Amino acid sequence: MTTHHVPGLKPTNIILHRQNHQLKIEWNDGHTSFYDLNALREACPCATCRGGHEFMGAEHDPDLIALTPSRAYSVVNLNVAGTYALQIEWDDHHSAGFYTWEYLRRICPCENCQALRGADSE
Ligand SMILES: [Zn+2]
Ligand SMILES: [Zn+2]
Questions:
Q1: For residue 41, how far is its CA from the centre of ligand 2 (angstroms)?
Q2: Domain residues for 49?
Q3: 66 Cα to the center of ligand 1, angstroms
Q4: What total of structural domains would you count in the chain?
């Protein structure tokens, strides 16, 4: 109970829909997020992916989730890392990315969250 990036905000349910190629996260504030798996792979927050990406600067851009992925990715394994993040193991053997709850919520592609992000970035 020591590591909380965003105290209070956490998923109550994490569901992998392999057929829809989606990850669904239900949050404890009642929000539900749907992530396209390909986009989620492209948004991997690890240093390697950030450094090797043509779009990447120091800050990860939430809009990256809307970009068209270069290939189709599958999830091999989902691990909840402690109390703060989701570790995703991909079929390209990449599993270095820790998707914190804060990050996942920040890149939520739903209309409401996109509108919120638009309001934030003046
Ligand atoms: Zn990565
Ligand atoms: Zn959302």
A1: 18
A2: 11-120
A3: 17
A4: 1
